[in-house]
Amino acid sequence: MKQIKKLLVANRGEIALRVLRSAKEMGIQTVAIYSTADRNALHVRYADEAVCVGGPQSSESYLRGDAILEACRRLGVDAIHPGYGFLSENAEFARLVTEAGLIFVGPSPEAMNIMGDKLSAKQAVKAYNIPLVPGTDEAISDVEEAKRIAAEVGFPILIKASAGGGGKGMRIVNSAAEFEEQMQLAINEATSAFGDGSVFIEKFVTGPRHIEIQVLGDEHGNIVHLFERECSIQRRHQKVIEEAPSSVLTPELRARMGQCAVDVARACDYTGAGTVEFLLDEQRNFYFLEMNTRLQVEHPVTEQITGLDLVKEQIRVAQGLPLPFSQQDLTITGHALELRVYAEDPQNNFLPDIGTLTTYVRPQGPGVRVDDGFEQGMDIPIYYDPMIAKLVTFGKDRQEAIERMLRAIDEYQITGIQTTLGFGRYVLQHPAFVSGDFDTNFIRDHFSPTAIADAAPQGPTTEKLAAVLTAMLLTEKKPAPATAADSAASVSNWKRNRTGIR
Ligand code: MV4
Fold first, then answer.
1. Mutate which of 440, 442, 447 to test ligand 1's pocket (most atoms within 8 Å of Cβ)?
2. What is the spatial distance between Cα 402 and Cα 409, in angstroms, rounded to a whole number?
3. Which H, E and C letters describe 479-502, residue by residue?
4. What superfamily does domain 134-203 belong to in CATH?
5. What strands, in cross-sheet order, belong to the sheet with 49-54?
6. Cα(483)–Cα(486) distance, rounded to whole angstroms?
7. Which of 9, 2, 12 is closest to 381 using CA atoms?
8. What digits encode the pLDDT tens for the residues 471-500?
9. Is 133's C-beta closer than 6 angstroms to any atom of ligand 1?
């Protein structure tokens, strides 16, 4: 094993702090990097050492692989954790890190390259029995052939860019008549956006749920899955609420999807933490979409239900250690929710709302975890992602996790900027969310800007939530605690005692 003594975290914000904390617990010396806009950031103060790598723009700092490697040489760093975003899925950077004699805490550059390209990912998993959405598994070169396949799978179809992912470079085609034009547009778009015009076709699955499986692999060929996260509540490909486990998977389906995820990881000899994304259709058929070769934003919900520290596991396997557990050792305990708190104004088309955190008081208490990188008085820089915190709650079951989330949202005090906290409360109280009857169209189907005011924690809406929960208790066979209505009522009492917040 190669002992890591000093780890550089090539990231900022909440994830930098998150990774630094686990490194510290493991007795590893830590180095932060920062841009001139982040001089006073918490991750800079938290690390043992910190290096300024450039100007505010990401391209001048957090994306500067050369400056980061230079800092590693200067400070005697022996490993780099890339976090998510920035250089985390850059295979070329991972290769340079390894060539410099350092450990990249993540998968091999080869695995990143295979999964970074959607078509090569499909090719890689071909030898395994992985369900794929009907369509083409090679880049379209012949329009007539493509049209024939499109007619075969049936419209509407999606044209996707092989180099895309996360919703980038997708086009819906509703009929054969518009096929050729849309395909040319898709190719042009992919060429200018990714420098690669390869596109392919998939049947458009309407109203799917987004289910992803966390996997973990070591350098000895062991791969396990850590169950699923449901991320169907999204707005323009930006996740809003994630949860684990999903309320729709049966133990049998969970085991089948888990095995498929392990096979996808096996197909590229995956090491470290990764996520295999699936679509689940209305008949509960599942299809492999893509694999994300990084630690994801929403990893805390998996940590809460498995009791594991994913960053520690990443660091252990990066040191060459074997996974300390097998699949049979892993179980799900309880239920976790994550609400992403963005500095955005839901009343104003979710425009980023930057400014100073005049008031910033985190919620506390049983089952509440806040991953963030800010403190009261700090400015939210305009240069980076507007996510200010991840509010995570854990409970013995989904209902308790929801009740704790509503209570935590109400305790959270943020002034100076608009946030998506109220929007989160709206979603969490919505009958479709509470009952688990939702898909990726939830926000399109159920949200309008005036809806948030209606969900404020006073008056009839609280009663409505209590009514929905009560109705669920009456229809469900399992005995459920009689705390739903009490808890909802206490939320509104707490809120009534305060004014001027938000
Ligand atoms: C799809 C799809 C429907 N059918 N593929 C969006 C993100 C990217 N990972 C894949 N995405 C989708 N692919 C087929 N064949 C619908 C989406 C999609 C979506 C997927 C997951 C979560 C939210 C979504 C929102 C819009 C579209």
1. 440
2. 10
3. CCCCCHHHHHHHHHHHHHCCCCCC
4. ATP-grasp fold, A domain (3.30.1490.20)
5. 49-54, 29-35, 6-9, 79-81, 103-104
6. 5
7. 12
8. 665 554 333 333 333 333 333 333 333 333
9. yes
Which residues have CB under 8 Å from 261's CB, separation 6+? 213, 215, 225, 276, 278
At 464 the pLDDT is: 55
Domain ranges of the chain: 6-105, 134-203, 210-455, 462-499
Catalytic residues: 294
Rounded Cα distance, 203 and 149, in Å: 10
Alpha-carbon gap, residue 301 to 228, rounded angstroms? 10
Q: Which residue's alpha carbon is nearest to atom 19 within ligand 1?
A: 440
What are the C-alpha distances in Å from 285 to residues 34, 233, 252? 44, 19, 13
Residues contacting 179, CB < 8 A, separation 6+: 143, 146, 147, 150, 173
Atom of ligand 1 nearest to the CA of 441: 25
Residues 6+ apart with CB under 8 A from 500: 415
Q: What is the pTM of this model?
A: 0.91
C-alpha distances in angstroms, 491 versus 143, 213, 392, 432? 58, 33, 17, 21
Q: Which CATH number fits domain 210-455: 3.40.1190.20, 3.30.470.20, 3.40.50.720, 3.40.50.2000?
A: 3.30.470.20
Ligand 1, atom 10, lies closest to the CA of 167
- What pLDDT does residue 498 have? 33
Q: Is 202 in the pocket of ligand 1 (CB under 6 A)?
A: yes
| 14-28, 214-228, 457-471, range with the lowest pLDDT | 457-471
How would residue 81 be classed by pLDDT, with cut points 50, 70 and 90?
very high
89 lines ligand 1 (CB under 6 A): no
Q: 3-state secondary structure string, 420-463?
A: CHHHHHHHHHCHHHHHCCCCCCHHHHHCCCCHHHHCCCCCHHHH
Question: Which residue puts its alpha carbon closest to atom 14 of ligand 1?
Answer: 204
Does residue 291 contact residue 217 with C-beta atoms inside 8 Å? no
Residue 195, judged by CB atoms within 10 A of its CB (0-12, 13-18, 19+), counts as exposed
Q: Do domains 134-203 and 210-455 have the same CATH topology?
A: no
- Residue 167 Cβ contacting ligand 1 at under 6 Å: yes
- Mean pLDDT within 174-189: 92
Residue nearest to atom 17 of ligand 1 (CA): 167
Higher pLDDT pick, 212 / 186: 212
The mean pLDDT value of the chain amounts to 91
Are 153 and 135 contacting, i.e. CB atoms less than 8 angstroms apart?
yes
288 strand-pairing partners: 132, 278
CATH number (3.40.50.20, 1.10.10.10, 3.40.50.300, 2.40.160.20) of 6-105 reads 3.40.50.20
Residue 440 alpha carbon, nearest atom of ligand 1: 23
228 forms bridges with which residues in the sheet? Answer: 213
